[in-house]
Amino acid sequence: MHLDPDVSNSVKILIVGHFGVGKTTLIGSISEIEPLQTEEEITEASEGFDDLSGTPNKTTTTVAMDFGRLTLNDTLVLYLFGTPGQERFKEMWEALSRGALGALVLVDPTRLHESFAILDLVERFGLTYTIGVNHFEGATKYPLEEVREALNLAPETPIVHCDVRDRTSSARSLITLVQHLMSILG
Q1: pLDDT tens, 113-156?
Q2: Cα-flanking dihedrals φ and ψ of residue 156, to 5°?
Q3: How far apart are alpha carbons 131 and 162 in whole angstroms?
Q4: Contacts of 130 (CB under 8 A, 6+ apart)
Q5: How remote is the C-alpha of 175 from its chain's centroid?
Q6: If we measure between CA atoms, which residue out of 141, 108, 129 comes closest to residue 174?
Q7: Over the stretch 41-69, which tens digit does the pLDDT of each residue have?
């Protein structure tokens, strides 16, 4: 990714992950504009579709996308698109992935098995990605190399701890993705 210092560059980034991993929260914590959120109440219609066992207090879900913006410097603006995490919304991925330069994949280390379908989609759409291991209150903070091994990630795939509620932590995760993109794209 070559950035012209005399020109404003805008980059489309996807924030992806399984249901209830913190995509909407990350965009809300970092966006410099009021984020667009398509959150709806979880209803009985989602029974049998959405596994709430890992997120018993979750009452809403993203049904289309989330959107936010983050200006990193005078020449680089990130447009953040959060995808729905449920299998039934995967058709949204094709539209949202068009024009995206990369993806921050959020994972919950206590529900890593739910991340494999997301990683498959990211790879299917040819997106460069980094992993943000979201830290949930009261949960064990697993070593990153254990998470890397459990997800069977390539050694060159960046992986960082992240607390999506914290603006600085969210920014660090996105900066890691941008640095990775710049190292790959030149």
Answers
A1: 999 999 999 999 999 999 999 998 888 899 999 999 999 999 99
A2: -85, -5
A3: 9
A4: 102, 104, 105, 157, 158, 159, 160, 173, 176, 177, 180
A5: 13
A6: 129
A7: 655 655 555 555 554 454 555 455 799 99
